[in-house]
Amino acid sequence: MKVYSPDEQISNISLKKRILRRDIERSILLNIQAELKQAYEDIGNNSVILYSMPIFFEYASFDFIKENGDTTLCRLHIGDVISMKIEEGENYAMVKAIFCHQQENDLRFAFVTVDWFEDMNQTNLGCPVFRLRTSSNWRKVFSINLVNAIKTTHFVHVCKDEECAGGIHNFRNSLYMRNLFFFKTV
């Protein structure tokens, strides 16, 4: 299936591992038509008719052409932390869904659904603490071409002994640290 980008810097979009709609979190599907319409307006398509439902996937890959002409292969998975080209400054979000939508002219475009991080103006071990904002009053659906950076900033779940154990995280605890220290293992 060919997926198009409204941005000439992005090409060869590939969406892999389809997810059945029944396996998608209900919160992702809430208000998705209105959010999708707004995402189309972001890319300059104000007249789209939303007659088809999105098709969801576990991950996406695409080529990104840098200003110097070099091409980079980008991989995007559900759960990745990304920055978005939305406003001034760094805007971090966690990818909750990756999907494509087919327009009435049979063109398919790729989109992401995100939950935003909010800076708590606190530090833990010298690292800034963020809260994963899951409220529905922030926009969540965006064209994949607005993804600015993938895996360039590392966020670590702030585990509490009684909540997270054995590598299983309790995500009702929505606090994360932006890891400013990178450890290289040999």
Provide the descriptors you would attach to this structure in a database record.
186 residues; SH3 type barrels; single chain; mainly beta
Shape estimate: globular
- Share in β-strands: 35-45%
Oligomer: single chain
Q: Distance between termini? A: 40 Å
- Helical content, roughly? under 10%
Radius of gyration: 17 Å
Mean pLDDT: 79
Low-confidence stretches: none
What can you tell me about this protein's structure?
The protein has a single domain (10-179), classed as SH3 type barrels. Helices cover 8% and strands 45% of the residues. The protein has two helices and eleven strands. A hairpin with a 7-residue loop joins strand 4 (81-84) and strand 5. The longest helix has 11 residues, at 32-42.
Topology:
Blueprint: E1 10-19, H1 26-29, H2 32-42, E2 55-65, E3 71-77, E4 81-84, E5 92-102, E6 108-124, E7 127-133, E8 141-143, E9 147-150, E10 154-157, E11 175-179
Antiparallel strand pairs: 1-2, 2-3, 2-5, 4-5, 4-9, 5-6, 6-7, 6-8, 7-11, 10-11
Summarize the structure.
The protein has 186 residues and is mainly β. The chain has helices at residues 26-29, 32-42, and strands at 10-19, 55-65, 71-77, 81-84, 92-102, 108-124, 127-133, 141-143, 147-150, 154-157, 175-179.
